[in-house]
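Example 4.3 (complexes with small molecules)
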Amino acid sequence: MGRGGRLAVVGALLGVAVGLVVFTVMAFLRSSPSTVDFATGHQPGTPVDLTVQTVGSIGFGPHPTWVSYLTQTPSGQWIHTTLWDLPAHTRVNMTVYQYDSGSPLRNQQLGQVVGTIGGDATLNGKTFRVINSNAGNGVGHTFSIPTLGISVPLYANNSNANLCSAAPCTTHSPHNVVRFSFMTPGPGQYPWQCFVPCGLGFLYGNGGPMQTVGYMGGFLEVVA
Ligand SMILES: [Cu+2]
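Answer. The structure with copper (II) ion bound is encoded below.
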């Protein structure tokens, strides 16, 4: 093969390699979870209802065994995402369907409800300000927005019960309903996450789903 031929082969191989890299990068970028829009068309002064669920294992996608949150869209569809667009200075009425089991908290501080309107939350209709995770079923997850000083413990289900194993779970499975409200601040991006080290099989429980957007953490994109 002449010099020109060899150059052509090398060039072609290089082209394929670059193409593969670009394809992989684009596939990775596209895989980021979608955002549920609660801001567009919002009537100023009215609250936003935001409903999520926690499941012990998502049951599909690249990490079917990972623990996860899911979000319900305004039209009622369950989506595997933790990214929300929200209007600024607006009351958010949160409902969490908690389908997972739990354990005693390593840090008892996280058993407290902080930063919500009224400083409390309801568990299956009963108001509470703290959960003693050393009693009963323990705590499965928290819903926490560190930069806003908001945190709510999510009481767990009995791990011996017939728990839902794949999302989205329905209320036919054992669950706890946790409700609370908070105010969104001014525009900006605010991370939220679970503070229970629930990443089973990862170092100290803090890897995997605990550090992957779409599973145990996400963002509030607060818009004006
Ligand atoms: Cu968690």
